[in-house]
Amino acid sequence: xxxxxxxxxxxxxxxxxxxxxxxxxxxxxxxxxxxxxxxxxxxxxxxxxxxxxxxxxxxxxxxxxxxxxxxxxxxxxxxxxxxxxxxxxxxxxxxxxxxxxxxxxxxxxxx
Length: 111
Prior knowledge:
This protein is α+β, with helices and mostly antiparallel strands. The protein has helices at about 10-25, 35-55; strands at about 60-70, 90-95, 100-110. A hairpin with a 3-residue loop joins strand 2 and strand 3 (about 100-110). Helix 1 (about 10-25) packs antiparallel against helix 2. The longest helix has 17 residues, at about 35-55. Residues about 1-10 have low confidence and may be disordered.
């Protein structure tokens, strides 16, 4: 069953769930603290996965999160997938404040 096309086949429900979770954890006033990055990463990934699995969609998910200190350094990343373009999809949600950048990638694979 094909899902509506939006951000590479992600549904608006999936986008909204991830935005809500990430924005609740990575707030505008959050300052980069190296000792807490692992905890934030875990919270983002686990809470996104839990929320996505509550949606009534026939998908398996992969959630990946990168948090980095905003210091002017570059970050380049590439992903390639072999899947069914009509049913599978992915999207990226980015949150940035004056101290850090959080990039969350979600991949949905149809069952």
